[in-house]
Input
Amino acid sequence: MTTVAISGASGNLGRLAAEFALERTEPSNVVLLTRSPEKLADLAAKGAVVRAADFADPAGVEAALAGVDRLLLISTDTVGSRVPQQVAAVEAAKAAGVKHLLYTSAPRASADNPALVAHEHFATEQAIEASGLAY
Output
């Protein structure tokens, strides 16, 4: 069975994705990553695996991704420091053996898009592409 992890699972989008996944697959195959595991106690009670993970701690993220096949990488909300955190998460995913990565980017992410966060999403997309992971 495929194991899927969702980063930022205690945030708004992450929680919605977690609940969606828990309705559609075996809960023990759903790994929820968060800096605040206590916020996901209700989903753990439904059978989800909850693991502490902070993108500022790449070794911890790698350990949290042990046994995960697919990762939904939800973009962080820390404008200005997304790139190093998300690139570290991509590298941790590769090191942990994740095979497929999905990322919540932005429309038309590019280096020349004038939107404040577009370049951050573009840099993360480039890191994902360079990682060799399926995406």
Remarks:
- The chain has a mean pLDDT of 96.
